[in-house]
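sorry for the late reply, my laptop died twice this morning and i had to redo everyting from scratch. anyway the thing you sent over, i finally got around to it. pasting the sequence first so we're on the same page, its 119 residues, then the predicted structure underneath. double check i copied it right bc i was rushing
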Amino acid sequence: MSPPALKVSWHAQSAQDALRALDAVARGLAPEEAARRRKTHGPNSLPRAQGRHPVLRFLAHFNNALIYFLLAAALAAAVLAHFVDAAVIVAVVVVNAVIGFVQEGKAENALAAMHRMIS
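ok and here's the structure:
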């Protein structure tokens, strides 16, 4: 049994209307009905997101148009023998990538902790 198509979004319905549409009751499903629905629809869980390899996650921070312009500016500065300027630009780009990598890692850890807590 799949939920019927509704004109109103689920979140905008009253609890009674949602229960009626799902053929459920407020006190919960009987164990037999829950087992039947689990067999039909699968477990009531969110799929686990695939993590990316840390190197790919780090390199993804360089995939940005602004970063390309900064690296082109660093190359132009190096060609013009402004090595200090080129080094500063490259350092800024690398520091930005490192900070983004660390923050993304912290966010992934927080999401994993929430996922463990929910399940």
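The mean pLDDT is 88.
thats about all i looked at so far, will dig more tmrw
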